Amino acid sequence: MKNILLVAIAICLFITPSCKKKANNNGNGKVYNSVNDITVPSGFNWENSHTIPVYISITDPRFSTAHHTISIYDGDPFAGGKLMARGSASTANAFSVNLYLPKMMSEVYVLKSSPDHSMILQKVTLGSSLTMSIGATDPNFDAKPAGHRDLTPLDDCNTGCTNTITTNTSNLNVSEGEVICITGSNITVGFSNVTGGTIRVCGTNVTLQNLNMGGYTNLLVLAGGSINVSGLNYNNASVRIINYGTITGLFTVGGYLDNYGTFNCTGDLNFNSTAQTFNNNGIINVSGNFNNSSALVATNNATLNVSGNFNHNSGTAAFMNYCAMNINGNMNLNSLVKNHSFIKVAGTTTINSGGELTMHNGAMFKTNNFILDNSHVTGYGSTSLLKITGTVNIMNTGALLTGMLQVCAPTAVPAARLSAGAANDCSLYIPVTSCYMEGNGGVSVPDGDGDGVADANDEYPTDATKAYNNYYPSSTGGSTVAFEDNWPSKGDYDLNDVVVGYRYQVVTNAGNNVVKVIGNYTLLATGGELGNGFGVQFPVNAANVSNVTGATLEAGQTKAVVILFSDMRTQMTNWNTYYGATASPTVNYTVSFDAAGSTSISSFGLNPYNPFIWNYGLGNNRGREIHLAGHAPTDLGYTSYFGTADDNSSAAANRYFVTTTGLPYAIDVPVNPFNYPVEMKDITQAYLHIGQWAESGGTSYADWYSNTAADYRNTSNLYNH
């Protein structure tokens, strides 16, 4: 109540027009001289945020019913995003929480951290709720190997053959359109001129000599068939070898190679500039080096064993591994390798500036020595493992290990070379499978306090009663609640009679039940004549609250109500609402209490809860509470004022603390500090789009309070600390 000031302002208005408020036209043709010009939609509660129910389940079977940790951030956690909520989820129990998020927030980041500290990070677009299921891998990065080629009815040695070979043959010519079917075993077939056509082999131990494949020649070895090649010329981009049986020989690939059987290269396997595609869906054994200098699309979907070195120099083309690669020599990369599964290098892996290694969804790359020269290793999807058993040499400033990646090495990689989630860690659990010929870690992980949350995910690893920190609005953010104190009558709507900034930390246990609450508050302004008090009601029974510090747990309340102060003037001498006037320092409060684990985080929520003031200055009028719109009074609040003066509260209609024209007596703004209006300046004269926001029911200009553009605010009417 500011009766004296109101008189002064009234005199000013009669004496000089310069004291009058400037008309505020927000571009919709309507002038807002005050909040009284706002036509408020029925039921609008002046909320800048809304409740988003969250339900996240786990389908990852690797750890049975053990706890995985779910964390929700307001942005990418590896690029400055702030934590909002965290808790346990398993295949048996989902993680659920009600978040209170700014309406202009369109997305959040959800991070699943498993007991072995493997992670999956997903960006989720917000709707009216957030429901999702997370497995062992990120579906956005699931492996997509080349499809298997099914045999057709013509892929045999009985159908469509123009010439069937059963005995030793020499000087064989094959032309376009011909189909040569070799059914004999332990024979030698020599060729003279091959300009196209198809050669099918169904026999075993067939030796092919002087096969110079030209034109559009196809060599097809059927299941059960086997050939030995001598003097094979395979330097034509249109030539294709398809193997379902066994091929042994020395090769330089110049066309297409599709292997579904066993392919034994008795020396170096070279891919020249005309090579087109390489798809391995069987077993390839290379007794020499694997040399790729082509721009082919290369995919290993099964097993590739190289006795020598693996040299990948194909420019922009990638080599994609979806199963097992065993390199007994060194690996030298000057081009991209995408590893979706398992690669083992017995010697030294060198990734040069033109090369790159990407790891996808729990892949494993094991090497003896490792050299990264001005290049990147990047993890995508769920966490992958780079395991180094020997030396590590990271060269030049551009060398970086980044993304969802654990680096397990005898010597830790410097933190400056790790980013976006990459970490020195050896805990990733990878079981042995047909593709992962070696695994890592185990199902059992350290849990020092025995609460079921792995130490790596437990924020209180030595305290079994606590596991996680949750925050409102976030781990470093804050919110502000601002009051008018003239209820049940209207005020002047400068919304600075009591202004309090705050942030909550809600501690939960492994079962996602609330065990401790910590509130950090800052009294910013006391722009009212009354000595108002301030308190907060929490959604937990008072009987379950103990060890209150920094405030008083109020008696006579069913729900827990903590009182920070009963008379703001004992806390802050000056008002902090006038420019040029002496200001009082802001006042900080830290309030905490234990909650006995009786309330789930889903029920407790993460929101402003129920802050209120009361008019202590009116004869210690404790019951004259003033709350946010839509929030009921506490057990000690008066309801006798409901429906009097300008108030339109009705308990029967579940309508609280709004005027007959729908105006609030308090607002909560999800920023801290909030630049509230200076004394006697209606909020519409400071925030130029709040009128449009309110009339739209909160759908337009949702950033009315945060946008600093000149057409959004009149800074001369805002108080700055």
Which features characterize this protein?
3 domains, Immunoglobulin-like, DUF4842 domain-containing protein, LruC_dom, 721 residues, 49 strands, 7-stranded antiparallel β-sheet, mainly beta, DUF4842, 3 helices
What report would you give on this structure?
The protein is mainly β. The protein has three domains: 3-45 and 478-717, no CATH class; 51-141, Immunoglobulin-like (Sandwich); 163-300, no CATH class. Helices cover 3% and strands 40% of the residues. The protein is built from three helices and 49 strands. It has an eight-stranded parallel β-barrel with strand order 19-21-24-27-30-28-25-22. The radius of gyration is 36 Å and the shape is elongated.
Give a topology summary:
Blueprint: H1 3-15, E1 49-58, E2 68-73, E3 83-89, E4 95-102, E5 107-113, E6 119-125, E7 130-134, E8 163-165, E9 169-174, E10 179-182, E11 188-194, E12 198-201, E13 206-209, E14 218-221, E15 226-230, E16 240-243, E17 246-253, E18 256-259, E19 262-271, E20 277-280, E21 283-286, E22 290-292, E23 297-300, E24 303-306, E25 310-312, E26 319-321, E27 324-327, E28 331-333, E29 336-339, E30 342-351, E31 356-360, E32 364-373, E33 376-388, E34 392-395, E35 400-408, E36 418-419, E37 423-424, E38 468-472, E39 479-483, E40 498-508, E41 513-525, E42 533-541, E43 546-549, E44 552-553, E45 559-565, E46 587-600, H2 601-604, E47 610-615, E48 621-627, E49 666-669, H3 690-695
Parallel strand pairs: 1-7, 8-10, 9-11, 10-12, 11-13, 12-14, 13-15, 14-16, 15-17, 16-18, 17-19, 18-20, 19-21, 19-22, 20-23, 21-24, 22-25, 23-26, 24-27, 25-28, 26-29, 27-30, 28-30, 29-31, 30-32, 31-33, 32-33, 32-34, 33-35, 35-36, 35-37
Antiparallel strand pairs: 1-4, 2-3, 2-5, 5-6, 38-40, 39-40, 39-49, 40-41, 41-46, 42-45, 42-47, 43-46, 44-45, 47-48
Organism: Flavipsychrobacter stenotrophus
Domain DUF4842: 512-705
Protein name: DUF4842 domain-containing protein
